[in-house]
Specification:
Layout (H helix, E strand, L loop, with lengths): L9 E2 L6 H12 L2 H4 L13 H13 L9 E2 L4 H9 L60 E4 L5 E3 L4 E9 L5 E7 L3 E7 L11 E2 L4 E4 L10 E7 L21 E2 L2 H6 L2
């Protein structure tokens, strides 16, 4: 088997030399049968969040690593796994370091396809009133997500393929939350009932898979999915009380446009 080699590390904390990054991007694309087409990378030799996220995803899904480091070393296990799991033979292989990617096995999606997290869009818009992202809360805090009103017990679905970061911790007024790292963002699915046991840290989820059901908020006559999103550029706990005005991690993003496009 023709093994692709590196001169230096690629990914989080790596030297990220042009040819090495292009090699890893190509190998990731050769493993899309495991990762799905949303992991397709432009082979441009430039390291970025998408490439690092794809390495993380490969380590979690293909190598079953519970603590992926998002890095590929020249003589490391991740490089070996990428070489052994790549599709072969491929009709467009050419000699040398680079492959002809003018006709990729998977086409880059012009726009990622997401599933709406509920079976039906709520009657009350998540873009207005107290439900919208950025709505004012007590003490000058701003709302860090979008609220999708629905009845207790309503199923909540994964918006895309991903890997569970954290599941089943108490979130707000007796409800629970699940954090899933999707390719383009990390999603917090909050205000759920007790989360089912298969959703453990490191578990893979598929788009449309059940992640929980809407729970009962103690003392309030309402129920909803509280959805937060993060770019994934930062690490650590999502709640940061000192980080005003949202009191959330600095890579918090507005979910509205993604929800609008979700099917």
């Amino acid at each position: 088997m023709n093994m692709e080699m590196l001169t230096a590390s690629v990914g989080r904390g790596g030297r990220n030399q042009f040819k090495d990054v292009a090699t890893i991007q190509t190998l990731i694309n050769d493993c899309l049968y495991l990762l799905g087409p949303l992991c397709f990378l432009q082979v441009d030799g430039k390291i970025g969040a998408r490439t690092i996220d794809a390495i993380d995803m490969f380590q979690k899904i293909a190598m079953k690593m519970t603590k992926p480091d998002g890095r590929v070393d020249p003589r490391g296990k991740t490089l070996m796994a990428l070489n052994f799991k790549k599709i072969r033979p491929r009709p467009h292989l050419v000699t040398g370091l680079f492959r002809d990617i003018s006709k990729p096995f998977f086409k880059t999606p012009s726009e990622p396809s997401y599933k709406f997290p509920l079976a039906m869009r709520p009657r009350e818009s998540y873009k207005t009133g107290m439900r919208r992202f950025g709505a004012t809360r007590s003490g000058g805090r701003l709302h860090a997500g979008c609220d999708l009103y629905a009845q207790i017990g309503t199923p909540v679905y994964a918006m895309a393929d991903g890997v569970v970061e954290t599941a089943g911790y108490e979130f707000y007024l007796g409800t629970y939350a699940v954090e899933v790292k999707h390719l383009d963002f990390l999603a917090l699915y909050g205000e759920l009932g007790k989360v089912s046991s298969p959703l453990k840290k490191g578990a893979t989820v598929k788009k449309g898979q059940l992640v929980g059901k809407i729970g009962k908020l103690q003392g309030l006559n309402m129920s909803m999915l509280h959805l937060e999103m993060y770019s994934g550029k930062e690490n650590g706990r999502l709640t940061v009380k000192s980080n005003l005005p949202y009191k959330r991690r600095s890579d918090l993003i507005d979910p509205t446009s993604i929800l609008d496009k979700a099917k």
